Amino acid sequence: PSSNEQYRPDYHFTPAKGWMNDPNGMFYLDGEYHLFFQYFPDSTIWGPMHWGHAISTDLVNWEELPIALYPDSLGYIFSGSAVVDSDNTSGLGTAENPPIVAIFTYHDMAGEKSGAADFQSQGIAFSLDKGRSWTKYEGNPVLPNQGVRDFRDPKVSQIQLSDGSKSWVMTLAAQDRVQFYKSPDFKNWSLLGEFGQGIGAHGGVWECPDLISLTSPAGEQKWVLISSINPGGPQKGSATQYFIGDFKDGIFTPDDTMIRWLDYGPDNYAGVTWANVPKEQNRTLFIGWMSNWLYSQVVPTKTWRSAMTLSRELSLFDVDGTLLVKSAPVKELETLRKEPIEVNELSNLPAQAVEILAELDGSDSFSLTISNELGELISITKESGLVSIDRSKAGKSNFQEDFAAMHSAPMSWKAEEIRIFLDASSIELFVNGGELVMTSLVFPNSPWKKIEFHQGINEGVIYQLN
Ligand code: FRU
């Protein structure tokens, strides 16, 4: 739905008012994709964290529901996950009406102020009515602090152990590493193993991990460990790295020591995947917070702050024997398309919400600009193996010194086609269907009006999106 608030996206999720950060607790059930999020309703800057809630039947159109979890005497409700406990292993529901179990971090503000290190612990809550209302478990916390200052963001999934048994496995961020715990019932957790010391990027604290299984193009089952990091990202500030390897009984063994980034733009953080997606869909679905801790609290929006990225489908692809994760926009986004408009060299943009598709001419370098009548512009190029988005002249930027910048990403393999999603205050670039992704916020002083292909692109198509 279009709105008359400047910078309010048309087709990215934003809360009606207040502050939002990480996506939390995503699961699918009975035709509904649930999205919870770090939320402070009373201000447009970070504060006492709640879990806000939204649902969608198509991962594209979102309806905001009442707040799901409020802070309590144990602390703020930080990031975490939710799963459908179909076998009622938690005993928090019944066999006929199994519970949805949410697991999150309690952040005890008083504890933090007192200088203690043990102010983060994990708690659970459950819902028996499709996520509409939640009851906190009375025995919280279920995983007390183990003496680590940063001890948070539990992501739980059901994984088969090598003895054939199925177990709940929690992936948890513990400062400079990820820890794996197992539990039969969400209430008792035991440490299986940890990963991350001396490997990967360590320019900041590790946050919001996720462990997923994907099949390689050769048909091999691989495990992908996602771990956000703040600061220390490739474009400064926060970003999401991942590792590819094997996972067995709590031991993650990476294939190599290469540092991989899920999205090379500055504005995709703390993303994780949906639980309980129907098997027949065979999809791994991801969403991230479309901002960066460098400037998230000072971007020029008024009544709300932050949007989520587009929902994306993750898969593996291979570049000369090296596996990488591809992030493709979910296919449901195509339902937003209006009549296609052909573009050769230059075209007016019909709206602020558009999708642009273009085949490259085979030369593996290209250049295009998106601009408005004020002379503000975004320039997108591929040159000498680097894909870049330059937002240094793309509108408002004086709120933070790092914002006006050009961001580049290495792409050693050939770019064949590009797909760009523009909304009121963002651009998402998917090269080769998502083999290379860059997500950037932009705050033009007047909506984008025009696109120009300068080099490497013969023609393309623009779709206005609803
Ligand atoms: C990541 C993060 C998480 C934490 C939450 C607090 O952006 O710092 O580690 O749980 O935000 O809002």
From TrEMBL:
Q: For this chain's UniProt record, which GO biological process terms are given?
A: sucrose catabolic process
| Origin superkingdom | Bacteria
GO cellular component annotations of the record: cytoplasm
Q: Does the keyword Hydrolase belong to this entry?
A: yes
GO molecular function terms here?
sucrose alpha-glucosidase activity
State the CDD domains in the record. Answer: GH32_Inu-like (cd18622)
Q: Which residues form the Glycosyl hydrolase family 32 N-terminal domain?
A: 12-324
Annotated Glycosyl hydrolase family 32 C-terminal domain residues: 348-454
State the UniProt keywords alphabetically: Glycosidase, Hydrolase, Signal
* The keyword Hydrolase belongs to this UniProt entry's keyword annotation: yes
Task: Spell out the InterPro entries in the cross-references.
Answer: ConA-like_dom_sf, Glyco_hydro_32, Glyco_hydro_32_AS, Glyco_hydro_32_C, Glyco_hydro_32_N, Glyco_hydro_beta-prop_sf
Q: Provide the family line.
A: Belongs to the glycosyl hydrolase 32 family.
| Protein name listed in UniProt | Glycoside hydrolase family 32 protein
